[in-house]
Amino acid sequence: MADAADIEAQAALWVARCDARGTQDDAQLTAWLLADPRHRAAFLRLAEAWTRTERLARLRPASAPIDADLLAPGHA
Questions:
Q1: Checking CA distances to 16, which of 32, 51, 68, 75 falls within 20 to 30 Å?
Q2: Other CB atoms closer than 10 Å to residue 22's CB: what's the count?
Q3: Single pTM value for the model
Q4: Torsion angle (degrees, nearest 10) of CA 60, 65, 69, 74
Q5: Per-residue three-class SS string for 33-72
Q6: Which class for 61: exposed (0-12), middle (13-18), buried (19 or more C-beta within 10 A)?
Q7: How far apart are CA 35 and CA 40, in angstroms?
């Protein structure tokens, strides 16, 4: 039985593959997801995190500087 770290790593690979191909339609992915409920949970969790990071990246133009004090207490 795979441990949690192995499952997370495999799920991360699947998320990256799906993003690169632009699809989740893959028989091997489907088999992996169905093999263990922890696989699906990890995949969905990481896919959502991946989507959120893409949304965050769109909020700031790539050429804009990052405000190092953005999260500092009292910063408005």
A1: 68
A2: 7
A3: 0.68
A4: -50
A5: HHHCHHHHHHHHHHHHHHHHHHHHHHHCCCCCCCCCCCCC
A6: exposed
A7: 9
Q: How far apart are CA 36 and CA 54, in angstroms?
A: 28
pLDDT digits (tens, 9 = 90+) for 22-68: 776 789 999 999 999 999 999 999 999 988 887 766 766 667 777 77
Give the position of tokens 């995190």: 49
Burial (CB count within 10 angstroms: exposed 0-12, middle 13-18, buried 19+), residue 68? exposed
Check if the beta carbon of residue 32 is closer than 8 Å to that of residue 6.
no
Cα–Cα distance, 31 to 70 (Å, whole number)? 43
What is the dihedral sign for C-alpha 43, 46, 51, 57?
negative
